Input
Amino acid sequence: MNTLQLAAIIGGVSSVLAYNAESLGFAPLGSRLLFVGVFFAAMLLGLLWEPLGLDDTFKGPPKENNFKPRQLYPEVDGRDKGTPDNWVGRHPSLVRLTGRHPFNCEPPLKDLMDAGFITPTPLHFVRNHGKVPKINWNDHKITVTGLVNKPCTFTMDELVAMPSHELPITFPCAGNRRKEENMVKKGLGFSWGPAAHATSVWKGVRLSTVLKHCGIKTPAEGAKFVCFRGPKKELPKGADGSYGTSIAYNRAMEKQWDVLIAYEQNGKPLAPDHGFPVRMLIPGFIGGRMVKWLSHIEVTSHESKNHFHYYDNRVLPSHVTADIANEEDWWHNPDFIINDINVQSAIRSPEHKEIVLDDGGKYTVKGYGYCGGGKKIIRCEVSLDIGVTWKPCKITRHEREWYKKNSRTDYENFDSRGKHWCWVFWQIDLEKKDLCAAPEIRCRAWDQDHNTQPLHIAWNVMGMLNNSSYRLVIHETKDSKDNKGVWFEHPTLPGPQPGGWMVPEADVRKQAIYASLGGIDPRNVPERKFSTSEITSANEEGKGVLLAIDGVVFDASSVLSEVPPNGFEVTVGGTSWGQDFAGLKDADAKKLLAKFQGGKLKCLGVYSA
Output
């Protein structure tokens, strides 16, 4: 029973007794004063219960749940066999961006948008820096320390027993559309396409509820930031091998920001890739702040000191290369941290290589838009003349309708709350003759503060926050009956997939795309296929040091005298902390990487496992 409900019942009974005191045999004046006093005390208690940091629900001991991690596919993908994630079920249609391991993926943009407002969990993009930890619900605990009066440790059942909050949130990656930046100049990150975001209904406990329970101190007492981290020894970098970050005190504590410690996604326990059993959910922020497998919360006077808080999720000036960033320590400059996502949009229809005939009538162009900070997308537009003039599109907003259909007593009124956490869909009907006569079509969105998307890419070394207007190039064509029309070319396709106008020469498209994952020229890869047994036999017989690097077989005997301790499979594609050199010492790994990226290893063929 909710505290306000209980207070209303007590107050209602008190008012009835006060009105009928004399007829019930009570002394008239004194009894009425007493019952009126009880009425007002009950109302005051109900109103002040949450501001005082008290539990908002009367409940007994926590229920024993023993939830299991949610598997999103009934079978383990063959590409995950032989990796630390060979127990996690994953949808096979997801586009893998960093080879076999670690798992980083996004769905095809068509599948993402066609699934509707709420993204089915199996199609949700995944960003993993390493292996997925196996965590038992009953064993997992979250500790809260730092500038609090009562440090606490919570079991998962204790967390679930606390007042819950549930709402739809669009969850974006700061690297969405990074591949376009990598085609301008290769940066530090792997090549996300335009579908590195998803919208789910997340359920959990407000972070502010947990911190109030622990007696969080005030900013005047030094409490300025709330830090989070996942399990220790999860990753090879950082002082303790954890992934961690922080947010400002006000963002954590003000109810309007809806910050959650989440344990359900789309009505079910979290999947392993999405943080089972519990993760942070910060609406409007980039995904890199939403720590998975949450283990520890600390209230501090300073930002998190975690390695990934500084060496990830930054937008540095365009002249800053990786070497300059390290030499001049740009990573610790607070001006370049990313928190709220910027305004973004992209085109779903026409699809890449779709053909439209100039046969009269109209064609419906479709896409999406979103932004951070709880701001509203107020305008979506398309241009057919290289951004000189723009046509307004019809925007469909599903978030308001979700609140109308799913309202509960603990939801705030969507209109008065003034926060917009979800993507919008847009569309426009264009005359086919205009579409077929145009050199290109591009889109852009505007937020309520009139921020929009620039015409051109602002390159940065981490490839973050690329929100240049999304541009499709239009080419003339004919169908089999010689009817005139056009076909559409998107800027890129995600990950190692070939295609896109950003590499203008057809014969080097594959070369440039594979270069974004490690410097392999596919034109020079022999057609011979190597099995596991063939590579193992060759290495045992001293016929070289054969390695399968990102699925391509090389002779690394010019660098190494023997096979790495953990086997011949090596992962180079992806971010630096996503690379796996199979147990090589750092010095040997650096030598191998330099030779590989420089194209100086002898390529023998393809690894067929």
User: Anything to note?
Assistant: Residues 49-60, 507-513 have pLDDT under 50 and may be disordered. The chain is about 20% helix and 25% strand.
